[in-house]
Amino acid sequence: MKKILSLKKHEYLLLVISFFIAVVLIIFSLKELKSFSIQSAETSLITVNKSSHEALKQWIQFRKNNIKKLGSNDFLVNKTSEILQLPRDSSSLISSPITSELRVFFQPILDTNEDLGVFLISPNYISVFSMRDSNTGSFNLIAKESKSLLDKVLLRGETVLVPPIKSDVALESKYTKEKWHTMFLVTPIFQEEKIIAAFAIRLDTQKDFSRILEMGRIGESGESYGFNSQGVIVTNSRIDEKFEGIKEFNLENRLENEIDSIRVGQENKFSLCNGYVLSEIEDYKGENIYEVCVWDDTLNMGVATRINANEALKGYLFMRKILLLIIVGLFGMGFIMINIIVNARQNEENLLKENKRELEFIVEERTKELKHNIKTKDKFFSILAHDLRSPFSGLLVLLDLLLKNPKSFSEEEKTNMLEEIYNSSAQLFKLLENLLSWSRSQTNEITLNPEKVSIHDLIKVNFDLQLQNAKNKKIKLINEIDDRLNVFADRNTIDTVFRNLISNAIKFTNPGGTVRIKSSPNRKMVKVFVQDNGIGIPKENLKKLFKIEEKISTKGTNNEEGTGIGLALCKEFIELNGGKIYVDSNIEVGTVFIVELPNI
């Protein structure tokens, strides 16, 4: 203290100048940190918005392709033409056998896609067909709520998405308790190159539509949501959760506080967004939020991504508090020792750098996670789009032939057709079973229950299941596993592994061949060899076998079809059990898959 009091004027001046410089530096650092935090938030919001928007477009395009294909179905076109000849009153349409035939036609399609209903709409906007009697013969809901979109279908031949609107009937969805919101995909039905009607499928708003945008949730407050041209939120939103289920929280009601630059375009369309530009607005609670949004005319809706400003600037606000405390400390201690100021400044810079690294790490990790989720979804949709279509097409063709012309086929032909139906159904069942298992493994829904498992007994059970297939090809199944050999693993998942491997071995072994299972245990691991003397695998395909994105599906020696994901599923399950799987193969000599599992 005495040293401070004895300071000369120029030394006091030096302290004041030093303090002034420190304060200036702190203010500048805070400004730069805030700017960096805002830029990071903007980058994250734009990335998430683009990803959510693209995922939504891909899903809608996938559904549009499906409804276009269905809308050109000959049976549907003919029945639509016939029902349009009937009187347009409800009783005539409901009592018509055409309505019953169409309901039988549509029901399995709705069940498969988990959709909620169907409309056939005449050019004068009457619902000439619906899965519900209450809608049949009435002025169509889409014409009431979104006539301009329906006109695009009936007058221009476009396929359009009708964003969620108020439903005319209570809907039953397994994904939500909400019963009074609905959305549609609508496509024209052509006959002799003329539009005769509009075909609409009623989609479940809470299924894929809202789930895709829910993938855009960030942290505790960030989210992505869709809105229509009136500004009404049309997907699940954290805003909905805070309003306790009020679904029509309208952006138009908060324009004065949140949006300063809405422009009304031609035909009363709202221009809610001007591209990927970060906006700072005030929400319904008076809190500042950051938001980016984009309007998509092809989807007839906009996609917005937002996050609470305090959460986005969490690092900055934390640093601001720290630095304000340091300034207060400088007032009390700045006249004591200069080195305190120097040390404080160094600490501040270190904290800034650390905070910057943390923010960059969080952004990078969340971006990786988002890309992984989108890639996984794309893989799943790709498999659904390509592998489910072929078996279903074959089934529908054969069943259509049997139903329409049963007397035109001999008993032998009918038996052959039924055998083809059975084979397609079995292939489809195996594909769905593998898809379900793979999907559960990707979403971490599989619970492993490791236990003592006898490999000999497990192989015996699977040999018994495959015995008929082996007999049909005169293939010997040899189990050389010691009946005292056990592993420590989850029984269900490794049972799936060996079922796939044995099925593949039989499929790719020539008639009269052999499938042999043997083992080689050591103290820590047990090696199980699934060996065949079949056609082998080309070397260029060996590295692709276990990758879901490198889909390889080769027909067996008796033209058996494969699912294309069995080996990828095997790899997932083996690694979940702490093991490994690899393969050795030679063309025309055979293949051996080696599975390593923990010894008991």
Strand tally, please? 18
**Strand-residue fraction?**
15-25%
Query: Which CATH first-tier class of the largest domain would you pick?
Result: Alpha Beta
Q: DSSP helix count?
A: 19
| Overall 3D shape | flat
How many independent structural domains? 4
CA gyration radius, whole angstroms: 33 Å
**Regarding quaternary structure, how should these chains be classified?**
single chain
Main pleated sheet: 5 strands, antiparallel
CATH H-level homologous superfamily name of the largest domain: PAS domain
Question: What is the share of helical residues?
Answer: 40-55%
Shape-level CATH architecture of the largest domain: 2-Layer Sandwich
Q: Could you tell me how far the N terminus lies from the C terminus, measured between alpha carbons in angstroms?
A: 73 Å
Q: What does this protein look like?
A:
The protein has helices at residues 2-5, 9-71, 74-83, 90-95, 97-113, 141-145, 147-156, 205-214, 238-242, 255-258, 309-312, 314-333, 338-387, 389-404, 411-442, 455-472, 491-507, 539-542, 566-576, and strands spanning 117-121, 127-130, 160-166, 181-191, 194-203, 223-227, 263-264, 270-271, 279-282, 288-296, 301-308, 450-454, 476-479, 486-490, 514-521, 525-532, 580-586, 590-598. With 600 residues, it is an alpha+beta fold. A hairpin with a 4-residue loop joins strand 10 (288-296) and strand 11 (301-308).
